[in-house]
Design brief:
Helix content: 10-25%
Shape: globular
Largest sheet: 4 strands, mixed
Number of helices: 8
Radius of gyration: 25 Å
Distance between the termini: 28 Å
Order of helices and strands: HEEEEEEEHEEEEEEEHHHEEHHEH
Strand order of the largest sheet: 16-15-1-17
Number of strands: 17
């Protein structure tokens, strides 16, 4: 699920379970899946029903790649002058971000203290900005890298407003304002959507101050050197008197391992209201037998950009930044005019659009659904949620319906929908849509109007489901009963 969701965030692609078709019986043994979506090969417009994960985690702002906890690298766990050489092989693969903060060690799911579905709390981990001391970013920088925290701002992406209605009277969504960015772009009469505003130039960072992002340089790893001086990757990072850094952090040529290590070099870009500061952050781990024990973080200011009309290359993609870094002393961090460059104002708008339209997992899903609708506007779309069908269940349009108006209303209701803190009830959602296509869902109309009409469900989710059912049995024959796969397969193979 994590891999599928990452693809949605990074590429606005779909994590899809397509399980409904009409007109003939299909058996698994003879199944041949086309590389082209089936609904693109029929003259009758297909029904496409979106099933949206409405669990509380969809509200979260952080989703990490696999990594080792900062504890595994840092001998001074609490940044209080302590020093430990004990190995802590803590490999994290659950998408959470664990670090110290507010005198507690916890898992952080929110960066900003806004209108969050689970509220805001520093104690035990939750919201970074809620902490008044021991700020989480001082312990681990990596959540500000999009290659570590895949929901975070990525300068290689040009963020756009949602392609639908955000205004009170249906006005289209617009570019966000860097100094007055909305927590949620959709106007709501009940005032739960757009009640929070933020000046990203002064409070864009979770510790106060302007917005920051880091471009990761994969130049250090953990391991050792053989007798010929060749780097050998190790099993896990070690700390203190057992430091096992290799590569640039060891004062040697770069060694890449494909993992965002705490002691990797990173270029930090700080976007203020009228200027942008660019710093290079490096590490020099030393044992207690050396002159300065610890990680020895060093921050070098490379340039401060102030010209409002210049299109700076360093404000372009991550590859542009890495290319300049690799040029070493020859690098010109004020270089301008290359493809992909940005002015300060363009960089600010990109950051603001990410914050307003993409920073939460659910925001990426809303954007992806919008793009699907716009790409095939004549298809017949419906939508509901895993659990909250009562608050959002839009049937596919009827034969004589105004499809553009229907699509506009679907987007409007989707944008209005309020995120709740609830579980991941995938099975119940699959069952509800299966009943709908079977013409047995309450008072809903039968969505299937033609015998040759194709019917699909597209599922958007970020994690494992945790509800249950006992009504299906082992439909798919894998030896495990009443799973989400059983529900999906039941309706896939049923002639509707």
């Amino acid at each position: 699920m994590l891999t599928k969701f990452k693809k949605i965030v990074e590429l606005s692609a779909l994590s899809a379970i397509v399980f409904l078709s009409g007109g003939h019986q299909t058996h698994a043994a003879s199944l041949s899946i086309s590389n082209t979506p089936l609904f693109l090969g029929t003259s009758v417009q297909p029904n496409v029903f979106f099933l949206l994960d409405d669990s509380g985690s969809m509200d979260w702002e952080i989703l990490t790649t696999q990594h080792y906890s900062y504890y595994s690298y840092d001998p001074d766990w609490f940044h209080n002058g302590g020093y430990s050489s004990a190995d802590l092989n803590w490999y994290i693969d659950d998408g959470f971000f664990y670090t110290f903060g507010g005198n507690n060690y916890g898992s952080w799911v929110y960066m900003y203290d806004q209108s969050n579905a689970y509220g805001n709390n520093c104690s035990g981990g939750s919201t970074m900005e809620s902490c008044t001391d021991d700020f989480p970013p001082t312990f681990d920088w990596r959540f500000r890298s999009s290659q570590f925290n895949v929901t975070f701002f990525n300068p290689s992406v040009t963020y756009k407003p949602w392609g639908g209605p955000c205004g009170e009277s249906g006005e289209p969504c617009e570019d966000a304002d860097f100094t007055n960015a909305k927590n949620n772009p959709k106007y709501c009469a009940s005032n739960f959507c757009a009640e929070d505003w933020r000046n990203l130039g002064t409070t864009g960072d979770t510790m106060g101050g302007p917005f920051k992002y880091d471009v990761w340089i994969d130049d250090s790893a953990f391991g050792s050197y053989d007798e010929d001086g060749n780097p050998v990757l190790g099993a896990f990072p070690r700390r203190g008197d057992n430091f096992n850094e290799i590569g640039v952090a060891a004062g040697m040529p770069a060694v890449s391992n494909g993992m965002v290590d705490l002691w990797d070099t990173h270029i930090r870009i700080t976007v203020g209201t009228s200027s942008v500061s660019v710093d290079r952050v490096t590490y020099d781990p030393q044992t207690s037998a050396e002159a300065s024990r610890g990680l020895n973080k060093d921050v070098e200011n490379l340039v401060t950009l102030t010209n409002a009309s210049t299109c700076y290359n360093i404000l372009g993609t991550q590859e542009d930044v890495r290319t300049m870094h690799e040029q070493g002393l020859l690098a010109d961090f004020t270089a301008a005019g290359a493809e992909g460059c940005r002015t300060i104002a363009e960089a600010q708008t990109n950051v603001a659009n990410w914050y307003t339209y993409s920073r939460r997992r659910m925001f990426s899903m809303k954007n992806a659904i919008t793009q699907v609708i716009d790409a095939q506007a004549k298809f017949r779309y419906g939508i509901t949620k895993f659990k909250g069908q009562g608050s959002l269940f839009i049937e596919v349009p009827g034969v004589d319906a105004d499809v553009p108006a229907h699509n506009f209303n679907l987007k409007n209701e989707l944008y209005l929908d309020k995120q709740e803190g609830t579980g991941t009830f995938l099975v119940g959602g699959l069952d509800a849509v299966g009943q709908y296509y079977s013409d047995s869902y309450g008072n809903a109309d039968n969505p299937i109007k033609h015998s040759c009409q194709k019917n699909f469900q597209i599922v958007f989710t970020d994690g494992y489901w945790n509800d249950s059912t006992n009504k299906y049995g082992d439909v798919d024959g894998d030896g495990v009963s009443n799973t989400a796969a059983d529900v999906a397969y039941k309706y896939y193979k049923t002639d509707l």
